[in-house]
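Protocol step 4 of 6.
Sequence for Probable tRNA sulfurtransferase (Intestinimonas butyriciproducens) entered exactly as in the expression construct, tag removed. Do not edit the line below.
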Amino acid sequence: MTEMILLKLGELVLKGANRHTFEDKLKSNIARRLRPLGKFRVYTRQSTTYVEPLSDACDMDAAYEAMKHVFGVVGISRAKACEKTREAMLETARSYLGDKLSAAHTFKVESKRADKSFPMTSIALSQWVGGELDDLYSNLQVDVHQPELTVHLEVRDYAAFVHADPEPGAGGLPVGTSGRALSLLSGGIDSPVASWMMAKRGVALEMVHFYSYPYTSPEAREKVLELAKLLTPWCGRLTVHVVPFTHIQEELRRSCPEDYFTLLMRRFMMRIAEGVARRTGCRAVVTGESLGQVASQTMDAMAVTGAVTALPIFRPLVGMDKEEAVRIARKIGTFETSILPYEDCCTVFTPRHPRTRPRLEDVEAIEEPLDMEGLVKEALEGIERVQVGG
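Step 5 output, structure tokens:
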């Protein structure tokens, strides 16, 4: 029988009557990731999703790597299917895992009998196959506590599967099962991490980036698009809404007190983000803010910033320190791009002494002379939409 990829499902198995909705979305996400890699059959049985190649042309190595980025999966392994007899499972272990068995010094066998009609118990099957392998490989000793190699046997409805040492999956929920949100994507470390964290909770994302040419360079814009591209293995294809932000920043610099500049700028960002969100069916805004990290991320400042929108604002990094965000950025592959030395719009006209404990009524009074509606409308009409990913 053929080699397959087994995907162990995560928390979605705890869902009730709507569990099939989560499973269907997961299968759809998997199928989309596999489409460039060949023809595969994807189906779910007994809390496991099977990825079965339908021809020798399928790129199994690339498919296995792609599955590591699929949210909703907690474990992943390449496995060989065989007949549901102990002899067939032993022979498959020898032929399929022979190199690993020859290289290891200690091992154990773990069995899972999902098909209760199989005549041996899980323990009895493990003991029999383990005993035979111990006799066949003189280099091996049984260690049930900390083995170098674990041989897994799974007896399921229509076949048995043999594999070794599954790897962790991405976890979380399938992207698209928790609605859509608009994520503010800068060129820094935090916003890609925040986007990834919300995608892990099943949120499909649109991205918005505020671009302040000529104060920020074309390279800064390309850096942000590259960050979005790096997120697509996890999030799927993304649309980046590039907002022209220069006029708003110049107007704020001309008309407003310097110490309020960053707050007023971020309030404009939220107004524009709400406009983009409503156009694209997003029901929340995502930011990379972390409490107390910079002056605009104090509790008072975040309250003033968020007051301009009725949409929920998700701040998944709010309780993290920088090292935690950096650790995730390295894990998901965005860190090296994030630290490239191209400034984003948040560093333009940075005040020397930003206001950290603003009062909403003071901020609203400063904004009152501004043509806020016109400035927001102009920015929305000037948006460039860039699609990244396949």
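Step 6, annotate. The mean pLDDT is 94.
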